[in-house]
Amino acid sequence: MTNISERLIPLLRMAEHICIAVRAPTRGSIYAWEFEKDGDELKIKVQGQFTSNSGSLAIKAAIAGLGIAFVPDFHAEAAIKAKQVKILLEDWCQPFPGFHLYYPNRRHHSPAFSLLLQELQRSRR
Fold first, then answer.
1. 3-state SS record for the chain
2. What is residue 84's predicted lDDT score, i.e. its pLDDT?
3. Which of 16, 44, 52, 107 has the fewest CB atoms within 10 Å distance of its CB?
4. Mean pLDDT in each 10-residue stretch from start to end of the chain (125 residues)?
């Protein structure tokens, strides 16, 4: 049986590598990489010579060899298929549940917002 500290060693060593940090545009802070497996959760603050505020740019930087990137699947999908990058620690990476849209519960929305809601609802089907 492996204890938790032995299981976390690969994750803790992640901070020893050159990583590509992503600055959260809404908070302005560097996003801490989040890992979870079998109920164990870990957040790692990484540092690197390159920081981006875009997952798309972070994956391009990884392809260019600037470091390891931690981005949602949809940013890396094409690069993974093209074998430009590969997934590390896949068993610790949880699926991205998607984005959520919160809006006021009002009877009357602007025409533009109503069209956006209709399109989003249609695309979920």
1. CCCHHHHHHHHHHHHHCCEEEEECCCCCCECCEEEEECCEEEEECCCCCEEECCHHHHHHHHHCCCCEECCCHHHHHHHHHCCCCCCCCHHHCCCCCCCCCCCCCCCCCCHHHHHHHHHHHHHHC
2. 94
3. 107
4. 53 75 83 85 84 92 92 90 90 75 77 85 73
Tokens of 98: 């998607």
- C-alpha 15/C-alpha 106 separation (Å) is 46
CA atoms within 13 A on the CB side of 78: 5
pLDDT score for 83:
93
pTM of the model: 0.69
| Helices 55-63 + 73-81 axis angle, to 10 | 30
